[in-house]
Amino acid sequence: MDKFMHAGRSLLELVLLMAVGLVPVFSGLLVINYQQEAKLADNAEVSVREAVFSVDQALDRVQEVAMSTLPLAGQPCSSIRRALVDQVTSRSMLRSLAVIDDGKAYCSSASDSHELLTEIASTGQLLTFNHLMLDAKGYLLMNMYVQGEKKGVIATSFPVQLRTELDAFKDGLALVLEFDKHSVWKDGDSLNGTRPSVAEFTHELGSTQYPYRVVAGYPAGYAAQELRTAVFKMLPSLMLVGLMTGSVIYMVLSKMRGRQRNSAVDRPGP
């Protein structure tokens, strides 16, 4: 009977040691998971704000050029075309400038169709994309229309600067610029390429200055992959802590057993 009781007590102690040793391991895993999720969510939120700020600045530069060109609208094309070309040449982001008079395009630094430019101006929208206006690689060009009194300027730009701003975030986060009917991301747009996945920790923020918003997030499965990496890195340390904790408990139990035996020996018989 004593043997069975001793075996049962030993088994109970073993289970207790295992349970106590695993507590810091599981606790550590929970902390890692929480920290990882908080890090990804915070990074997405901060990155959205930074992206809006950077893109706004890029669009500000285009708008400044368009506004400075506005006084030329209404003047004869023969006298202003050289100035339009010079403005475009000095700014790598710009592809072309066109001036509007009384709702109609009549002069451009490029050979774009005046009818198409007039159509863009007729929308009255600040930022537009047109599937007929593409760069040499087939990517969408962005048109910014700045209006004055019966006059206006269309600044057509390469979204490369916008993509450069998005590409600055190199931590696995995907960012997409969403305009009215089109989207732009770091290596494509709504006509070219596959829109990146932003399924996890998705955050979005609209610009207060321009008609677009930034949507940011991580691809599906990214959080699990990052968690596995973090766990594999920290698991040996957690196991060591668990082993040390179990060892301490084992020593405490051993001392308790020793005291119990001594008490039994010292106890006087009947």
**Secondary-structure element sequence?**
HHEEHEEEHEEEEEH
Class by helix and strand content?
alpha+beta
C-alpha termini separation: 22 Å
Mind telling me the CATH class of the domain at 71-158? Answer: Alpha Beta
Strand content is 15-25%
CATH architecture of the domain at 71-158: 2-Layer Sandwich
Question: Could you give a short account of the major beta sheet?
Answer: 5 strands, antiparallel
The CATH topology of the domain at 71-158: Beta-Lactamase
Q: pLDDT average, as an integer?
A: 82
With helices defined by DSSP (H or I, 4 residues minimum), what is the helix count?
5
Helix proportion: 40-55%
Shape: rod-shaped
The CATH homologous superfamily of the domain at 71-158 is called PAS domain
User: Order of strands in the sheet with the most strands?
Assistant: 2-1-5-4-3
Q: Number of DSSP strands? A: 10
pLDDT under 50 segments (min length 5)? Answer: 1-7
